[in-house]
Write a structure and sequence with these properties.
Blueprint lengths: L8 H4 L16 H30 L7 H25 L8 E3 H12 L5 E5 L4 E3 H16 L6 E9 L2 E9 L7 H7 L9 H16 L3 E7 L2 E9 L1
Parallel strand pairs: 2-4
Antiparallel strand pairs: 1-3, 4-5, 5-7, 6-7
Length: about 230
């Protein structure tokens, strides 16, 4: 890789902000409860849809909807399985693995994008990445997807330069944006107001990158959100 391939230094090299806010305690019970609530929110929709499909199959008066019920069950089961596999790595349950194949990370990320309006371009070469960079890539990918509520394209890049992994996601699309609580989480600020679900993933990303002695950055423009991070390779 050349320096021209690397993510923007404006994002990856910016000094960490000095924040007069409470430090995040990601080991505390409140943070754990918010992560659990966020994950339950992600899982409840496809799980409920599966139950609804099963109810239709068991309803004698709805036998004409059997094909629709089977389709609902199948699509919802795929979504639930994709989210579970993604979450297992993105939020650290695969603790026994210290390194990850970028091609497996692509499959996990595409599994998330398969169920949302935007699409993803994976511009990361086949390589082995450490745990911190793998988790950062997955969380950045999902945050990029959430930044495109009206659809668009998120391009994921990661390169290894000078002993570190530099990661970017450029999300381009109409009304691309990040909620204020997401921006607060990316800066390492405690949640003052707003929705805890969007905040907690951004705060988790900030915490895991900083724990690895890396940095997180964000740039906003009209119809564009750029997320970046770097961690030691």
């Amino acid at each position: 890789m050349t320096e021209a391939d690397a993510p923007s230094p404006a994002l990856t090299d910016a000094p960490a902000p000095e924040l007069n806010v409470p430090k995040l305690d990601i080991g505390g019970p409140d943070f754990a409860a918010m992560v659990a609530a966020r994950l339950c929110h992600d899982f409840i929709s496809p799980a409920s849809a599966i139950v609804s499909g099963l109810d239709l199959l068991e309803d004698p008066s709805a036998q004409d909807m059997r094909e629709d019920a089977m389709s609902l069950i199948a699509s919802s089961a795929r979504k639930l399985a994709d989210l579970l596999q993604f979450t297992r790595v993105a939020f650290g349950a695969s603790a026994s693995a210290e390194n990850f194949d970028s091609r497996e990370l692509e499959k996990l990320s595409q599994g998330v994008f398969a169920h949302v309006r935007p699409t993803m371009v994976w511009d990361i070469p086949a390589t082995v990445l450490n745990k911190a960079s793998a988790r950062a890539i997955l969380n950045i990918a999902q945050l990029a997807a959430s930044a495109l509520p009206a659809g668009g394209v998120a391009t994921l890049k990661a390169v290894v330069l000078d002993g570190r992994v530099a990661i970017t996601a450029d999300a381009l699309g109409p009304r691309a944006r990040l909620r204020p609580e997401v921006l607060a989480g990316l800066k390492g600020e405690a949640l003052a107001e707003g929705l805890g679900g969007p905040w907690v993933q951004a705060a988790y990303l900030h915490a895991l990158v900083r724990a690895a002695d890396g940095q997180v950055g964000v740039e906003l423009a009209e119809d564009r959100v750029s997320l970046a991070a770097w961690v030691p390779a």
